[in-house]
């Protein structure tokens, strides 16, 4: 590059830096379009000569990049079909080895000679107890190099630490490293957006230094400083956004909905057949005080499965109805909306049937709005919503459509909020003349740092007690090495049914080919493909003809027509079915107290929080519940350890921490919500709690002094880049 070469900025298209071919590959396979995209495409880890990935720690299913030495190479004919297979064995000096297989590529034996060192990338699979990489991409170090020479070549390749990037088959990590080196030759870092006082207070390196060191670290110490600075940028951008939005929400005009001592809520409380738990009473007071203020409530209500969140929400809705307003409860599925309507109707009794023959004229009306309502029923329901006679409206996303007009929407309750997109919540809020109060409910326990980072502009209330009379749930893993355990599981179902109880059998798939997992690898004669997840439509007939023969079995999944789903749930709730074989459509809100046993097939295909939610469907009555986690995961695998952890505790907050450890941070922060490319790369909500707390404190101080960041334009632009508007709305939560 000559001295007259134009400097590369974050906005420069990659085609100008790397050429059209490389730019097209990065755009197509990794969604990287500009120099900024590539410079913020950080390594996910670093290999080091003599201290690289330990082959003994590899897990089946992992995508890996390894620094290893060829130990042996053999070519043999394939047994099942014509052609040859090249099998090489590589080791890393730890004593462990890994097999790499290549089909009909015997010519590779000439370069993959014993003693050669190289970088090997691929997916770890298992064949007859041996771990292998099937057709890995690789880059060999200089032929016949001594170990010292190999070390020099690695040093030249990327310094002492070898960056391993999130990559694609067509653009492997070493190719990305080469592109980054080319980019860094002309890259001009942006002006540092962080105020000098913040950098000094927190001992942060400059942005230019951080961006260079994270790609080509000169030492582990400098790499740590670079990562810390870039994590700070991510945390600070999120916290600034949340602090600004919380301040704006606190100042927004709303409408006070104070509690009355002689209204429907007082009558409802007087008729309750049980006392509120201490937690329900405390959270109820917090919400009542919020509703009485002239600014919209923005509150998150989290509570364990079965902790009584719905009752708290009903009491809040009745307070708003008493104050002349309406309340809408938004549920993610028709099954759950119908269930809520049925249970709230039972709780309210005559107080929810005003205008009917047996209704209490001092009460209100409860209306259900779903997409499957017939034309006449829909017109009647919408009329009660529009004229205000329906004080409580329960529905799915059908509430968001044109033609659903509220008389005076005062409170929006969003159940299982993670199932809804921001646009859906906003559409419902927009149906109010003034911003309504918002109560967001979730049964997924949220670790403190997640609450601070994802729900940081909501006040948080937590219900940790279970109502009196709720039974304990015992959970056990049914493993592949104990086949008799599965037989015993089906016997247990028959025993519970004989005792007058009911059971769930949960499968991860409905039953079409599109739902099957696909490893995306060509079939080989030595690697059986992972079978598709078990499906409701396949398991049901096997149970009917086999271990549960003679029992009354029903099926429930998301593709059934709405009226059929409702009919199945009604039959199960009425005790007309003994066993319900279902997908995760039963995960939230379904309440059948007579259900005492749940068998989850292919339990390792579900997430930790999902398993915890599912098992909350049993043990909801006076009889104890049991949840059996059926798996083919072998002992010692991460999947098995995850199931063992779920079986060992019913503490949702412990499990939430485990779930967070095993999930990508981007999922937690909502990257999948917007579908947009995100620069939030490094921040760990689990490991960086102190950094997040410090960033929150600095953000609160800065916004208090400069609410719109008018005096810090570079920082405002940086926040906009790191937390785009879609993500900012996602973070707003409601």
UniProtKB/TrEMBL annotation:
Alphabetical UniProt keywords: ATP-binding, DNA damage, DNA repair, DNA-binding, Helicase, Hydrolase, Nucleotide-binding
InterPro entries linked to this entry: DEAD/DEAH_box_helicase_dom, Helicase_ATP-bd, Helicase_C-like, NA-bd_OB-fold, P-loop_NTPase, RecG/Mfd, RecG_dom3_C, RecG_wedge
Region (Disordered): 512-532
Helicase C-terminal domain ranges (all copies): 485-661
Chain segments annotated as coiled-coil in the UniProt record: none
Ranges for domain Helicase ATP-binding: 290-463
Matching SUPFAM superfamilies: Nucleic acid-binding proteins, P-loop containing nucleoside triphosphate hydrolases
A Pfam short name: DEAD
Domain of life of the native organism: Bacteria
Secretion signal, residue range per the UniProt entry: none
Record flagged with keyword DNA-binding: yes
GO molecular function, one term: DNA helicase activity
Protein's recorded name: Probable DNA 3'-5' helicase RecG
Lineage per the UniProt record: Bacteria, Bacillati, Actinomycetota, Actinomycetes, Micromonosporales
